Structures are given as structure tokens and as C-alpha cells.
Amino acid sequence: MNNKDNANQEQQYDVQEVRPKELDCDVVRFQNNKEKWVAFVGLLNGHPYEIFTGLQDDEEGIVLPKTVTHGKIIKQTNADGSHRYDFQFENKRGYKTTVEGLSEKFNPEYWNYAKLISGVLRYRMPIDHVIKLVSSLSLRDDSINTWKNGVVKALRKYASGGQQSEDNKNKNQTTQQQ
Asked: Each residue of 49-65: pLDDT tens digit?
């Protein structure tokens, strides 16, 4: 491996503690005890950096067209200095639509677990390990356990072609070169 490859690999795995104002985002839908939920997986350089989850609900939750699978999570600073997170996507006609206050739409217990998972993602724990960690959580009731399964589903798509696979590929290339 040459110096350029080493620099690219180090840059790819750098921890970025200060969250950028905007992150690309994948949208993953799942069921939690017959309720429709949605997960927003914020991506930094194509790797999961944070996760938000909430009900897909006309009254108190998040309403999105079924065709929306990508967008941006935007961190906003309110007048009082507090922060909120908005989700923005382009509709079929190319107009930007913003769902404000993702953090205000979630059950505080789910929000706290999602913050914990986001912290683990932010510090670049390999996705396979994050999935194992989330799967092993022993939670109080059935509702939050089925939510946990939805989070695992949302993250699993990054394990097959994500950073763990890249790590193994890099190890194999290094072994072959020796």
C-alpha cells in the first residue's frame, strides 16, 4: 500500500466529533407492533453517523410519501440557542420539502436510545458490532424491543457493503501484498 492509499484510509476512518450542518440521509421504514415507523440514517462519507426514528403518523408523527428514500438531515439552531433536526427531501417535481423538528416528534425513551446508538456510530464502531450491541439490548417492554429490531434492520443494509466489508477487503489486500 502506498502513502496515498494510507492517507485515504486514515481519512475515511477519522472520527468527526463536530457534526456538519447537513448530512445525507437514507430513509428506512419498518413496523413496530403494527405501527408504521421510519428511521432516518444520517450518513457521513457514506457511513452511518446518526439515526433518528419515529412514528409515521398523520397527527403526531412524520408523514412522508412512500417514494422518499433519501434526503438530508439539517441541524438548526433555534433563537434560544437550542438545536433541532429537520429532514429535507426533494419531491417528484424537484421542490424541496422540509419536515421540521424531528427531535420533537419522538418518544423521549426512543430518542435517548437513538442518541446512544448515534454516539456509537459517530465514533466509528464497525457496523456489525453496532448491530450486535443493539440486538443484545435487554429492554423493558415488547414495543421498544420491536423498535430495536427496526433499528437493526435499518443499520443492517450498511453491514453487507459497508465499513466492515471494506475493513476485510483492506486486510486481504495487505495480506496478499506481503
From this structure: 999 888 787 676 678 88
What pTM did the predictor assign?
0.77
The total of other beta-carbon atoms located within 10 Å of residue 6's CB is 10
Helix (H) or strand (E) holding 146: helix 142-160
**Nearest alpha carbon to residue 99 among 80, 112, 111, 85:** 85
Beta bridge partners of 28: 39
Rg of the chain over Cα atoms, rounded to whole angstroms, equals: 18
Q: Reading across the β-sheet that carries 96-99, which strands appear in turn?
A: 47-55, 35-44, 22-32, 70-77, 83-90, 96-99
Please state, in angstroms and rounded to a whole number, the distance separating the CA atoms of residues 60 and 172.
Answer: 49
